[in-house]
């Protein structure tokens, strides 16, 4: 897979090129120092993938993408969190914060390979049904605010009508997802459907107490108390060997 690194910082380009040596499936065929330089090289070389900085002298990475008739796969590399929402809107494959961590780069390359596999199988519409691990990052948007958050940091999903409230840190944004849809994507070894309204992160349980009607009460590290239904208590005890 042919790739171009687009970044005005020479050291950033050098470091990323060095990290990509660990991924022989990605061949860096050129570099570009700004949007104009990148536009010419993309047209001439037709890369499959670009690693794109956002803030550069002159045009931004978003401006550059808007001028392409057909964009290659895009992985953003930036030092700025505030562009996450816009990166999501232009359908970027991933959004890597500088300095780029090897694990996050490996995750992005894995997403790239999965995307390529879908294309080879003729799946033109992107439908991602893969199971998410606790180390995966997910995009959460609520109104004008947005976050990239690791699933391991999410302690609770709560059903609110057609939405789900996502609990991480002091944040509780709403996303347009049902608990059933979330349950299908989440690793059952980490996330447990406690009852009709809640999915809990098993790693975020602080204390387990008996509850009425043979159920259990889970105290989460954020202070929430979640009832495990009688039916789910049987499953919970089997999982936790209680």
Structural description of this entry:
- The protein is of the alpha/beta class and 242 residues long.
- The chain has two domains: 2-120, Response regulator (Rossmann fold), CATH 3.40.50.2300; 137-240, OB fold (Dihydrolipoamide Acetyltransferase, E2P) (Beta Barrel).
- The protein is built from seven helices and 15 strands.
- The chain has helices spanning 10-19, 35-45, 61-66, 84-89, 102-120, 179-185, 230-240, and strands at residues 2-6, 27-32, 49-52, 73-78, 94-97, 137-142, 145-150, 154-160, 163-168, 174-175, 191-193, 198-201, 205-210, 216-220, 225-228.
- A five-stranded parallel sheet has the order 2-1-3-4-5, sandwiched between helices. The chain has a five-stranded antiparallel sheet with strand order 10-9-8-12-11, with no helix packed on it. It has a three-stranded antiparallel sheet with strand order 13-14-15.
Quick summary:
With 242 residues, the protein is of the alpha/beta class.
